[in-house]
Specification:
mainly alpha, Arc Repressor Mutant, subunit A, homodimer, 6 helices, 44% helix, elongated, DNA-binding
Amino acid sequence: MKLSSKARYGLKAMCYMADHYGEGVISLSTMSSSIGVSEKYLEQLISTLRKAGLISANRGANGGYFLSKDPVDISVGDIIRALEDGLVIIDCLSGECDSKCGCSTNPCSCEGDGKCNCSTYNVWNKLYEAINDCLDGMSLSSLINKEV
Amino acid sequence: MKLSSKARYGLKAMCYMADHYGEGVISLSTMSSSIGVSEKYLEQLISTLRKAGLISANRGANGGYFLSKDPVDISVGDIIRALEDGLVIIDCLSGECDSKCGCSTNPCSCEGDGKCNCSTYNVWNKLYEAINDCLDGMSLSSLINKEV
DNA sequence: AACTAAACCTAGTAAATTACTAGGGAATGA
DNA sequence: TCATTCCCTAGTAATTTACTAGGTTTAGTT
């Protein structure tokens, strides 16, 4: 249950872009030196965020990145889900039980559809919701405005 | 942000013990075959839970484990914190910033005490609280009584 | 048209963590 | 004394994470 570097750096990058929202595009090299991550690693995070629709890019000379939406309309949850593989904390949640939670023998029943229905499943489901609710309750703009 | 096997199996084990609360001790072999984990691996989880004060043990022949407290008085948070290293999702939370969150360059300031004070720190702190609140809101007894 | 600066894409690798396995030691009851 | 049970430590294989590397494509500038 550790947060990945991707999520930590990724949120930093999004904050940086939000701080400069409306000021035109930002190049990878600018951002990487500001945040203190290698260009190559940051590039991968940015790529993930772009594919999630949070960031847009202009290619070629004078190109760079910019937020696809106003920081008000981007939640921290949007960002972290993109970087943390949907925040699926346990495979059962995505409809696939790997049976490594001990389901096969306990009161639980992993039925034909592979969906887990353990007594403990409900705990993980609640936790999943709590995490998402928490992160969705914070917008990128509220973050940079020190409202969090 | 994946849940570890330790947490998954550990909660299963605690549920099993709660189901048999008041029926005397439970041996490792019984529990391991019921849950479907190897004795040796389960032993390590149980050991962690015992050191956290959640489980007690009788050694020697006819020995075994039993819950230290009534399932009503054990929260899921107690269990998961024991198994997931305090649920410290990022090192800054425990008062130690590894500066790998990009603090050194951004508006953030990791001061002399090593405590992180990033704009993003507040996000992780909120998330930490949300996770703990969620898990502390569920008792072991509520779980086995299908009240969750 | 050539050059340059930028994003884009894929593969590889080193480090760290996780998930186990293994084996012996110590306590206790029969 | 012996079997059964918990206790402790170390090792290892598998997986994941964090990061590096190198080439491709796009687009503005000269």
